[in-house]
User: Fold this.
Amino acid sequence: MLIDSFPILIILGLFITATTMPIIKKKKIIKGVSLVTFALSLLMYIATLNRVLKLGDYYYRVGHFDAPFGIEFHVGTVECIIGILFTFIAVMVIWYSIYNINSDIREDKIPLYYFLINILIASLLGIVFSNDMFNVFVFIEIGNLASCGIVVVKDKKENIKAGMKYLIMSCLGSGLVLMGIAFLYSMTGHLNMTYIHKELVKNYTNYPRAILITSGLFTVGLGVKSAMFPLHTWLPDAHSNAPTTSSAILSSLVLKGYVLFLIKVLYRVLGIEIIRNFSILNIILLLGCLGMILGSIFAILQNNFKRVIAYSTVAQMGYIFFAIGLGTEIGLIISIFHIIGHAVTKAALFLCAGTIIHATGHKNLKDLKGVGKEMPYTLGLFFIASLSMIGIPLLPGFVSKWYLSLGSIQSNKTVLIAVILVSSLLNAVYYFPISINGYFGEENLQQKVYKSKSKPLSELLPIIILVIAMIYIGMASKGIINLIKTGLV
Assistant:
């Protein structure tokens, strides 16, 4: 069936269209090609998910040889959901960029930028679907270069500095991941995830230290790439200095691709039966808690608008690591659910922030007081998205925190509920003042002209759709969680 080939055809399509962009002269055509490619990819993933729900998960052979010698894709419910998530956000970000990319990037750099975006999303989808460890590593390296490229493409001193820092840290992380793959190969003789797990189940008692080292290598290596505290040091500079669309993609998609691979390694390659014999989950849980609290504290101390949102990402990634570290079924399910909810929400937040910065020319929060009068709709969208980060009921952020609290009780770790509550309060401390100072206070609103810097509906529509999608994820959370659960059985 042709539909079975959709996951690989999407990745190949993104790579192929990327190579055409540097030779297309008209910028409008480049933007259109990128947008149409991602829109078609989204429709193909929706069709693939429908096929998986009807007929079940399947393995797709890439090439002439069956596993374990050949490369294969594992196409399951969770993978299809993430494929839909990534391509949906890519469509919204590319749509937004059509109106705003020229304010961030020189016109002669635009073909290169869309080339890098297509390459990056294709590599992330390869990480999500590939069932071969070395193949994942190849996609990681491609994505590494592309993600650094979308930071430095702005071609300013601070961007180049942030991009180099990102590149160095990311390369260190890649090296640790490669060492982890080498350890797995030496223990099992396989690179295919399914076969690695089968071999480890048989003889993991013979390699206790090697498995502990391997799990540590993957945790630290992928922790660097997915901004696990305290390995997040590259993130604030990269996200705050990058073009707005790059910030949205880095925070909502790139980090999620790497943390999904970590989930695969811990729960699918090693397996929960094996990993529970080691202390790695407790370490991840501890680092998740630290990220939730300290990431928010660092956000409170920031004056730069985008740096606040960047440090918020560190805190929100802490929730994902918290869920992984619980080592329970509900923890695993909510880690994936929070990936979905946070991806949509953070894309909306960064696009709102970029719109406000472009319109006002100010990055400092002190200079943005009263912006709610000048840009009421944009700040309104930002406020609604921030409510999810804080954990207001019915929104996905609240759903994640609620189930994480239940998971903490089930694990007899009720003290962790206090960590969740404190983190939520800290989230409110740095998100609420932005909207309050934007809308209220006579001294803030003086000499501000109502709607003087508002953007037309056509430019705000991608953000509106992202916010609506965020609300839908929260309202339909029970169904999404059940869908994730069926995909993990």
